[in-house]
What does this fold into?
Amino acid sequence: MSAGVLFDAPGPKARRRHMILTGVGVLLLAAVLWVVYKRLDDKGQFTAAMWKPFTDPELWKEYILPGLVGTLKAAFAGMIGATIFGVIFAMARMSQIKPLSWAAGVIVEFGRAVPVLLMMLFLYGALTRGGAEDIHAFIATVTALVIYNGSVVAEVIRSGVDQLPKGQREAGVAIGLTDSLTLRSILLPQAVTAMLPTLISQLVVILKDTALGYQVQYGEMLYKGKNASTIFANIVPTLIVIGTIYILLNYAISKVAVLAEKWLQNRGRVAEDSAQGGGPAGGVTAGVATVGAPGVDLAVHNKQL
It folds into this structure.
């Protein structure tokens, strides 16, 4: 019996084989983790003395918390910059002006193709030719994050617009809107709304990629933690603590994405109920989606009246 479009439901033998393979995989993973743990334990990395520095407020005050602040500063600046970059270049790439669309496409593809770390190193080298300062590392880190993640955001928005029904654009043109105004007032709001969970998930990538600032000596959490571990000689416990903080931050952002997705689903159901029970306006609403373009439905309705 078919369980989906691409494959059939596994039978008893296949399920048994999957369980065996899963069990073997779990055992192999447990064995690898045990070997790693044993080697680190033999070197004394899990003794109480290695974890004692974390009870000292100075460690948190001088290293962990400043590093956390540096990570959040770079992540926040990168998120804002990537969002603005993505929206601008998505609109430019979908522009009817061919030279503008071509130039935006080249920049977006360049931003997606070049590794973030390579951009950071190049920018940091260019900025520090006359002498290195702390602000140079911050600028190089944030700029590289904005270029790469902004290019990804631009592609996400463009793909969201491309997935919308063609009738959306035709409805805008039918009521006298220009192509650019149709894009801004009808297509773009709907695409951003539909892709909001994906866009929020991209924020997790930005937060994690701030750790690459370590290579340009930016004072983020990994860089500060490395300095602390050099002083207290507890590199493994320090990395475990920093990794735990990253996991908690990324989990919080992921929960925001889940809540946003649920909110959009509930909003979509309310819009559908309103369209089905709204009388004459319901037929109009079916032609132009209500989510993200509330003013357009009114315009179409008034034109028909």
In short: Residues 235-277 form the longest helix (43 residues). The chain has 13 helices and no strands. The chain has a mean pLDDT of 81.
